[in-house]
Amino acid sequence: MNKQQPVLAMGTTKKKKFSWGQAVLHLIFIIMVLMYLVPFLLVISISFSDESAIIREGYSLIPPEFSLEAYKLAFRNPDQMLQSYKITILFTLVATALSILIMGVMAYPLSRSNYKLRKPFTFFVLFTMLFSGGMVPSYILNVQYLHLNDTFWIYILPGLVSAYNLIIIRTNYKSLPDELIEAAKVDGAKELYICFKIVMPLCKPVLASVGFLFLVAKWNDWMTSLLYIHDAKLYSLQYLLQKILKESEYLKQLADTGQLMGGEVFPSESYRYAMALIAAGPVLVIFPFFQKYFSKGMTLGGVKG
Length: 305
Description:
The protein is mainly alpha-helical and 305 residues long. It has helices spanning 20-47, 51-57, 69-74, 78-111, 118-130, 135-145, 163-174, 178-186, 191-202, 204-219, 223-228, 237-256, 268-300.
């Protein structure tokens, strides 16, 4: 005899039972979000705060006295700032695109078990993760032999291939079924076609994740300008901001001794936070477009060895 199942009336929903475990989990996630969100809001608030108010009242999520003095000081030479922005954006995008292209193609043969030189080349890549030439040999190579100093290409050519990122991409390629590659070969597809039209599109999440990490590293690069660039037109944004901050420290000393700005308070704290926002702004805008690939890509890259 079949038991009759209870029928819910139309328009009614079954109430879910309260779960303390779910409540605690949601609370933990809310706290984690606030740990990232509150400092960012604090940076924005301080950058728009008057320096005297910061000294008098301390830090606040809402500017006690709104002021644009820090940004006016940062953009006192707008032509140089815009030039550094242009150079940094250009070499970041070009280097990231070339790096993904080279590593994406290079990882394909290393992921194929039928490639005879797979193990020697993989060992060579891993070896470079453990040992490097160092700063002085790299400087001599780039300056005396390649003549890349004071050129745009010094930002792009050195460091195009990262051994760690290459291993992540290769590992993700290996997770694809061999039957997919074999089926493409049966249909007459060549290796380059398989790489560009099948493998790389299927591995878009890991390529996007690695590309974003490389892009952030390039965007934050200031050491290259310090070592190789003397022409102000080729300064990267991070190096220019570092120079501005050093100048601001000197100006603050003059202001403290009453030798500058008629004894007014120099906006040192708000100036630092304004520099942080100017430097990180474009990356914060780009990140949402990569976020959907980021966690998925890095997880897939570590599934199979």
